[in-house]
Write a structure and sequence with these properties.
The complex is a heterodimer of chains A (about 180) and B (about 190). Chain A is α+β, with helices and mostly antiparallel strands and about 180 residues long. Chain A folds into two domains: about 45 residues; about 100 residues, Alpha-Beta Plaits. In chain A, the strands form two sheets. Chain A has a three-stranded mixed β-sheet, with helices on one face. In chain A, a hairpin with a 4-residue loop joins strand 1 and strand 2. The longest helix of chain A is centred in the first third of the chain and has 24 residues. Chain B has about 190 residues and is mainly alpha-helical. The relative contact order of chain B is 0.12. Chain B folds into two domains: about 90 residues, RNA polymerase sigma factor, region 2, helix turn helix motif (Rna Polymerase Sigma Factor, Chain: A, Orthogonal Bundle); about 80 residues, Arc Repressor Mutant, subunit A, CATH 1.10.10.10. Chain B is about 70% helix and about 0% strand. The chains are: A alpha+beta (about 180), B mainly alpha (about 190). The interface between A and B is large, with 53 and 55 residues. Chain A: This is Asp23/Gls24 family envelope stress response protein. Chain A: It comes from Rothia koreensis. Chain A: Keywords: Coiled coil.
């Protein structure tokens, strides 16, 4: 082989690489340079496969996994504080993370639907101290899911769950079907 | 896409978006999906299990911290691999880069590789040890950038486009580095025969 990627016959190592899994062409059949590279590349390929197989049992230690997850749990991203009840003397707020989680968990209970991100917004005027909220939820649906369910049932269930579990009032729930999930 | 080999791309996107919302359970599933590929990538880059495990851990912790900065959730796998490769580069440049894992300290049930930098002669490695040691020795002789390309292609099984995204280099550069890596390795194979 020469110093660059070209072989003495004028072909490149890459061109041999690209054809190494198929039958050699007329040039390669008669070319000693290409033939030699083909043979070595096949050996390299075998070695790479063996290495991949050997590596397949390589996983991080359980205590390292635990450390990573503990780190995440102790460094939560809670998002913005969302006021849910305003009084002259005090405001009760929930983290956006908490409201979003409640909404996502509710969506997930409906067969064929999985929630993605949930954005929480406040809607202008508090009603008797209750801040009215709006949610925007990204959804993945199964091909056989009944999309009308989002309007008929999922929306009401989300509003009910946020009210029941957090005491917050949601007036608007917008769904965006972002993907169809084929499993 | 690489994510298809580790679960459907829709599933990965869903987990990333939920993790961006602060959902630790989804992040935990991403950890379970990518810890092994990260460890294997780092191990082949560094030839040292302890350092590789540090890279996998730091890459995943860093991913959690910076997840909000990821604008395209579909790019999560290559974004994560890029962090791992960058950490590998830092370690390779580090002056303390002389550690090895003695065989008797390797965790039970895991494959054992010695750090081949101490014996980077492929012929000698082949004579004294297994073909895996010989491959490790050959890989360690490659320039780090070529090694990263080869490992991402052959071991992590990324496409040229994904390697280009991971290393933030043009696809033509990926092809060039891979060609050079293959040529060098093919030459080393001659020595090894």
């Amino acid at each position: 082989m020469t110093d660059d990627e070209s072989l003495e016959c004028g072909r490149t190592v890459e061109s041999v690489c690209e054809t190494v899994d198929s039958e050699p062409d007329a040039h390669q059949r008669d070319c000693p340079y290409c033939g030699e590279v083909r043979e070595r590349l096949k050996q390299l390929d075998r070695l790479a496969r063996e290495a991949k197989e050997a590596d397949s049992s390589l996983e991080i230690e359980p205590h390292v996994r635990r450390r990573i997850v503990d780190f995440a749990r102790s460094n939560l991203r809670r998002g913005a504080d969302i006021p849910v009840h305003r009084e002259p003397a005090a405001t009760v707020s929930f983290s956006e993370m908490l409201i979003a989680r409640t909404a996502r968990e509710t969506v997930d209970t409906f067969p064929g639907f999985t929630a993605r991100r949930c954005r929480v917004r406040t809607i202008a005027t508090p009603d008797h101290g209750h801040q009215i909220l709006g949610l925007s939820i990204g959804v993945v649906m199964a091909p056989d899911a009944v999309v009308e369910n989002l309007d008929r049932n999922v929306r009401d269930a989300v509003i009910d769950a946020v009210a029941r579990k957090l005491g917050a009032h949601v007036a608007e729930v917008d769904f965006t079907v972002e993907d169809v999930h084929y499993d | 896409m690489s994510s298809d080999r580790n679960g459907s791309s829709e599933r990965i996107t869903t987990l990333v978006l939920r993790a961006q919302d602060g959902d630790v359970d989804s992040f935990e599933r991403l950890v379970d999906t990518y810890q092994a590929p990260l460890l294997r990538l780092a191990f082949r880059m560094l030839g040292n299990r302890a350092d590789a495990e540090d890279v996998a851990q730091e890459s995943l912790m860093n991913a959690w911290v910076k997840l909000d900065l990821l604008e395209t959730p579909q790019a999560f796998p290559t974004w994560l691999y890029r962090q791992a490769v960058n950490k590998c580069r830092d370690i390779l440049r580090s002056p303390r880069r002389d550690s090895t894992v003695p065989i008797d300290e390797a965790p039970e049930g895991n494959p054992v590789w010695t750090d081949t930098r101490a014996s980077s002669d492929p012929q000698r490695a082949a004579e004294n040890s297994s073909s895996m040691d010989a491959l490790s020795a050959m890989l360690q002789k490659l320039p780090a950038e070529q090694r990263a390309c080869w490992i991402l292609r052959e071991q992590t099984e990324l496409s040229y486009g994904e390697i280009s995204q991971t290393l933030a280099i043009p696809e033509a550069t990926v092809r060039g580095r891979l060609a050079r890596a293959r040529k060098t390795l093919a030459n080393e194979m001659k020595e090894w025969q």
